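A quick word before the example. In earlier lectures we treated sequence and structure as two separate objects. From today on, think of them as two lines of the same record. Here is Oligopeptide:H+ symporter written that way.
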Amino acid sequence: MSHEDAASTASVERTPEKDTRFFGQPWALTHIFGVELWERFSFYGMQGILLIYMYYTVADGGLAIDRGIATGIVGAYGGSVYLATVLGAWLADRLYGSERVLFASAFVIMAGHIALALLPGFVGLGVGLVLVALGSGGLKATATSVVGTLYAADDVRRDSGFSLFYLGINLGGFAGPLLTGLLQTTLGFHWGFGLAAVGMAAGLVQYSIGRRHLPDAARRVPNPLPKKRMPLVWIVAGAGAALIAVLALTGVIRADNLAVIVIAATVVAAVAYFIVILRSPVITAEERSRVWGFVPLFLTSVAFWSLYQQQFTVVTIYSAERLNRDLFGWEMPVSWVQSINPVFIILLSGVFAAAWTRLGRRQPSTPVKFAIGAIVMGAAFLLFLPFAGTGANGTPLVAIIGILLVFTIAELFLSPVGLSAATKLAPRRFTTQMVALFFLSVALGTAVAGQAATFYDPADEAPYFTVLGIIAIAVGVGLAFSAKPVLRLMRGVR
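And the structure line, produced from the sequence above:
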């Protein structure tokens, strides 16, 4: 960037509402857009082949783990990614600021992908998933918070800006499974994991160039931890790591109960977080009311993600066993199904962003958007029912494409809106940690998705899709009828 561009950026940071250089959004959005694109390339590229790597036979390059246990591990891992946002958010709010935690987290993610690519068998799986989970958790909460610093609280572009941010995520999410899946089917799983590491390295290079042009607010530590409390932090961290090691060595934490443990840990973390924020003496009565208004959104989000995140468990199994993947005599990789949803996000996120901008104050309120998202997600599960009982590879590819289109529509009503709502409803001293609360709803939903997938039976799938679809619809309808009282709690935030 030239000196003139840097000066222009500094000016824009003082008056962000006047900066419209990136599709009507602040130019600084491009830097977070870019690093998220490459991080999602690596994340979804790896996740596209992760489940089949675990349950495929050794002869096929896999680890031959029982399929039910493998789906639970995927759910636990996915939940841990979002659970780790708590740690990332705390580090950002109390010690280092969002931008610095984001940068360090990207390095941890790359190390995790390198471990999956180079370390053999279960050692590589364990080390790799732990590092990717920790790094992705740190990056997720902080990247969203940094985007929030680009907008004034009443800037009507905020929701559309988050939708464009979501576009960057899904450009990476589209390319990742395609390329890692292609390498997996031609060269082997570890080549696919290696490509994910290369993608994260590209993201680090891009972000290193642009990070210095982000606003100072992105580096600010909103609630600094007193230095005298640092020894206690190290003691707690060491004790926590030791406890996890002891529980694993004594068999309390096992591969077959990981999802349940993550569910329990997430519930405890979410309840504790809400209590800490609501009882904090540094927040105002208005801020406290807004946090209460976030509670029903949190619960609806859990229900939504419990279904949506089954793309990486049930939908993967469905793609391998129930989907006709024949393309003119060539069988496409299982992981390619994971690229369908990002295609629709790429096509529709701009449409949603433009719609919210055009509607302005007339757009549906946040609770109504959440309700619609849950209802549509439930309907997507019911769309599997016409194909129940059609046998092995009996579902046409066009059917899964249509179902995942409905997944996408549901997602665009809830996910980017949820990120935006977390920043709008957050007390000033808990900005990043409120974003972490939203991600805790994703963590809980993801872990539930992994545990629920253990009950999926391709030979008798109608009850599974029916029950979960109806539950999600009921949750959405309940929130729709509660929209007005929720809005009153939100104190002017829509």
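Notice the following. Confidence is low (pLDDT under 50) at residues 1-16. We will return to this example when we discuss secondary structure assignment.
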